[in-house]
Design goal:
The protein has about 600 residues and is an alpha+beta fold. Helix content is about 60%, strand content about 10%. Among the domains are: about 170 residues, no CATH class; about 70 residues, no CATH class. Belongs to the V-ATPase 116 kDa subunit family.
């Protein structure tokens, strides 16, 4: 659900404003209303850019982490100054910059080694001695097709090496004598031998190894220093932002600040500020106020909040969709996964991850995966599939969850979620505008349920009383009258009828298309089960003629690779398609608006 917020204004003497902000920050419950964009303030923009730079450095350093050798932030060292944090940042950036420099140096030196390797390893001082004794030594390269055999006599050419399509050669001539140069590329040779270049390359490699060691050590043992510095920068930004959000009144002697407080924290706030002698007043929420949104759900639904935030937070006037779609999402995931064995593996992996991790965020993700894995395990057992093997009870003709019934069940579940979404949309309109504006939406839900009951009950229940059917049709007709003649209260009846006809068209076309979208639940689950069965058959049939000592390891290899790939695809499909059904079909029918701004209280970041 969305936590109720209260609006406050605070009137503070300008000389006490900083002290007041320190008090407010220590409380950590007030979301400060913005009167100007922080990005328009130069000093705050600098902090924003500094945090971007810091986060980029943290991501780069984190890529060198060895998960088994990470040292957590020592409690005794968490109190660090911003100057120390800046020094840690500079050190990390130097290591990263040095890594890039060494990579460039290595690439350049490797090119030089490659070039010199075409000539072989020789001492350049020998060439210099020949030159000192009156010989002219020139180095050339050309293509094999361009090199002529008579060059050896014509130019005193000596072939040194043939590399692929190129010829590397030298010419030897006496100083003071006339000589011609061949039509080839003249090479300017360095004053170092191949051995010297290779030694320099090895030296750079050693420096790279030391640099990587330094980065890994920093990532494993000192990354927390950058994280602490990031929190300090964020707290500094928040405080500076709070300073500029207050409006000056009474010749700039009074600061007026607006803030939002969760209803549950109102008493604590008022008691603290009254004790400090600060003036505050609770204000009425006005239309157009940008009210921050804080979600608060039960132990089950709160783990699905990241899914809500992935699309958008609801705005303050809406109904939190998290607890409304969470059971459906769990069911959809299980139907798409379609295998109890895969569900069990996911449950075990998530449990191990939750036990091993110390991060609250990772633990929450693992808990969500535990729910999803558990749901997939239960639903997989219900449909009778374990690692692609159909269980005996699922092979019976009387088994209720066979393929035909699963497809029907998928459509029924989809219809239920769509009707539920339309009911939520009616509740939202009632909350935002009042009961009379929501009656037509409630009426449409009633029409669909009553008409559906009138059509389905005779099929499900033989000999049902005609009176029940008549009552259902009567309720449906009454709902239609409300939907047609009271969909726009206060407007011309003809406008209401026209709107009713338009709504009927949209309802009929949209309901059919949206409901059919849920067939994907059946199709994805069926595909997963079939692929699992195919890999089982492949492992058994392809190894049938092999000796047992070859057959069983080979079977195990095929099963591990096959089921591993299938499970990976199943996880992706089982996340993507329920997300699609939630964000498209369900959100469309409950008329989700979104655009909520997250509640971000002014407090010291920890």
């Amino acid at each position: 659900m969305i936590v109720k917020m209260e609006k406050y204004i605070f009137l503070i003497f300008h000389q006490e404003y900083k002290e007041f902000l320190y008090k407010l920050r220590s409380l950590g419950v007030v979301h400060i209303g913005e009167t100007q964009n922080p990005k328009d303030v130069a000093t705050l923009q600098e902090t924003i850019e500094a945090r971007k730079d810091l986060k980029a450095t943290m991501r780069a350093v984190k890529s060198f982490q060895d998960m088994e050798n990470i040292t957590e932030s020592p409690v005794a060292k968490t109190e660090r100054s911003m100057e120390e944090g800046l020094e840690s940042l500079k050190e990390a950036q130097y290591l990263l910059q040095r890594r890039n420099e060494l990579e460039q140096e290595f690439a350049a030196k490797q090119r030089e080694v490659n070039d010199m390797s075409n000539w072989g390893d020789f001492d350049m001082s020998t060439i210099q001695k020949l030159r000192d004794n009156g010989y002219i030594i020139d180095f050339f390269s050309t293509t094999k097709s361009n090199f002529k055999e008579d060059w050896e006599d014509k130019y005193n050419a000596v072939v040194i090496n043939n590399v692929r399509s190129n010829v590397y050669f030298i010419t030897i001539n006496k100083q003071g004598e006339d000589y011609l140069k061949p039509e080839a590329d003249l090479i300017r040779m360095p004053n170092k031998s191949l051995s010297e270049f290779e030694a320099e390359l090895n030296s750079i490699e050693n420096l790279q190894v030391e640099n990587i060691k330094g980065l890994r050590h920093f990532a494993n043992n000192r990354l927390w220093e950058l994280e602490e510095y990031d929190k300090q920068l964020e707290s500094s930004f928040d405080f500076s932002n709070a300073l500029i959000q207050a409006e000056s009144q009474a010749s700039e002697t009074v600061k007026v600040l607006q803030g939002w407080v969760p209803e549950e924290s109102v008493e604590t706030l008022e008691q603290t500020l009254e004790a400090g002698g600060y003036f505050f007043k609770k204000m009425e929420i006005e239309e157009g106020d940008k009210i921050p949104v804080k979600l608060k759900n039960n132990a089950f639904a709160r783990f699905f909040e990241p899914i809500t935030e992935m699309f958008s937070l609801p705005n303050y006037t809406e109904i939190d969709p998290t607890p409304l779609f969470a059971p459906f999402f769990l069911l959809f995931f299980g139907l798409c996964f379609g295998d109890a064995g895969y569900g069990l593996l996911l449950l075990i992996a998530a449990t191990i991850g939750k036990i091993k991790s110390d991060s609250k965020g990772v633990k929450n993700v693992c808990t969500l995966l535990q729910y999803l894995g558990g749901g997939a395990l239960v639903i997989g057992l219900m449909v009778g599939t374990v690692f692609g093997v159909t269980l005996p009870y699922a092979r019976k003709e009387s088994f209720i969850l066979n393929q035909d019934n699963l497809m029907t069940l998928s459509i029924i579940i989809g219809l239920i979620q769509i009707l539920f979404g339309k009911f939520i949309a009616a509740l939202k309109v009632k909350k935002q505008q009042g009961l009379k504006y929501s009656l037509s939406r409630f009426a449409w839900v009633l029409v669909l349920i009553a008409a559906g009951a009138a059509l389905i009950l005779p099929v499900l229940i033989a000999g049902i009383s005609p009176t029940v059917i008549y009552v259902c049709w009567g309720v449906a007709i009454a709902g239609l009258l409300v939907a047609f003649f009271y969909n726009s209260p206060g407007k011309n009846p003809l406008i209401n009828v026209g709107a009713g006809l338009w709504n009927t068209y949209n309802m009929a076309s949209g309901l059919l298309g949206d409901t059919l979208s849920y067939i994907r639940l059946f199709a994805i689950g069926l595909t997963s089960g079939i692929l699992g069965s195919v890999f089982n058959s492949l492992a058994i049939d392809t190894t049938a003629t092999a000796p047992w000592y070859i057959r069983f390891p080979l079977m195990l290899l095929i099963l591990l690779i096959g089921h591993g790939l299938n499970m990976g695809l199943a996880i992706i499909s089982s996340l993507v398609h329920p997300l699609r059904l939630t964000f498209v079909e369900f959100y469309k029918n409950n008329e989700f608006e979104g655009g909520g701004k997250p509640y971000s209280p002014f407090r010291i970041k920890k």
